[in-house]
Amino acid sequence: MSTPKTASRTRYHHGDLRNAMMDSAVELARTGGPEAVVLREVARRVGVSATAAYRHFSDAEALLEEVKSTSLAVLADALAVAVGSVPSDGDPGDVAVARLRAAANAYIDFATGQAGLFLTAFCRTTVPGEQYPGEPFTDTDAFRALGYLLDEVVAAGRMPAERRPGADIAAWSAVHGFATLSVGGPLERHLTAEEQEFVRQRTVDVVIRGLTGAE
Hints:
Blueprint: H1 4-11, H2 16-32, H3 39-46, H4 50-54, H5 60-84, H6 92-113, H7 115-121, H8 141-155, H9 167-182, H10 186-190, H11 193-212
Helix pairs in contact: 2-3, 2-5, 2-7, 5-6, 5-7, 5-8, 6-7, 6-8, 6-9, 6-11, 9-11
């Protein structure tokens, strides 16, 4: 009679092991952040030896880098869902601004609701020979989506074109900063839920007004 471990190895023999390991690693990140993504624990959870696991990931850092990319993709999907939920009828300027606001709120929702994945998405990983390790956020779908939304705001006449250069970095920095302070930081520790919500909306308002010049 086969043991569960043997059965698991047979099940993953034809390429499924890598996917199973990624699923397990992402779940570890979801519940415990980047520190929880341990290659030996992933191997144990899918029922294979560490040696078998190392055939698919050279080391724990390689596994974490892929989980980081997956976390960033989950963030991009969350932004897309939020933006897609904004009604497209009405004044184009109002719609463009509403879509931008929805993305900002979805970013913070992701940080506070999926803290483990948020921390993993922006954790520091080491790639030999690179001064700034890991995938730059500016090369991700989430950041590109922000750029598209800002372009829509400009096209709709709600933001002067001269304000567009660097606006994506500025907007991201403000929203990301608030999100980071809200995940285990002083905003989470020292403000009530009601106060956090008030400051959150004030932050998003400041970002929108700073971009559009609206009063």
